[in-house]
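Re: weekly structure request thread

Next one in the queue (207 aa):
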Amino acid sequence: MKTNQIHEIFKNRKSEMFDIKRHYAVFVPLVDVDDKPHLLYQVRSNTMKRQPGEISFPGGKIEKCESIKEAAIRETCEELGVDSKKVKVFGELDYLINTFNDMIYPVLGTIEDFNIEELKINKCEVDRVFTVPLDYFLNNKPEVYDMSYRADISEEFPFHKIKNGESYQQRTMTYPVYFYEYDKFIIWGLTAKITRNLVKELVKSCK
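Done, posted below.
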C-alpha cells in the first residue's frame, strides 16, 4: 500500500469512537403537564436483572441497521406503550461513555397529547412513571459526590515491559456522580448526568 492510497482512504473519513462494546439510545421525554414542561421518568421493574427499582429514561440497545432516533422511538414505544406517531424527536443531546465502555446517545423529544393515565407501560420493564417540572431542575442544582475505581489487574499483566510500570498499579479513576431528589424519588447516576447536561444547555442558551 502506498501513501497516496492511504490518503484516499482517510481524506473524507469522519472520526468516531473505537473499542466500544455496545451502543444505546436513550429518549429524554419533555412532556406538557398543566401547560408546563416536565421531564418524564420511569421506575424500572423490580424483576429487571440490571438496576431493578432504579430511575431511568426509556432506552435500550441500538439494533443493526437502526438509527439513534429509530432506536430511541422504538424503545419508548415498547416501554411506555405509546403510539410511535406521538413520539417526536427534537434533536440529539451530547453523547457519553459509561463505565462499561458502552456508548450512550441521549435524544430529546416529546410525547404529543401526553396523558400519564393513558400510558400502557410494559410491566416487565417498568414499574411506574412520574414527571418532574423542568423548573425544578433549573432552580435546584444536583448534589455531587466523587466515586473512584481502582483497576483489577491480573498478575500476568506485563508491567515490567512499561517504563515505571509499577506506578500504574496504584492508579485510580475518579469521576463525579450526580443526585437529584424530588418528592420521594432519587434520580442519580447516568440519568442524573443526562438531566444535568440538558439543563446546562438550556441555561447556556438563555444567557
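The chain has a mean pLDDT of 91. The CA atoms of residues 56 and 191 lie 6 Å apart.
Next request, please.
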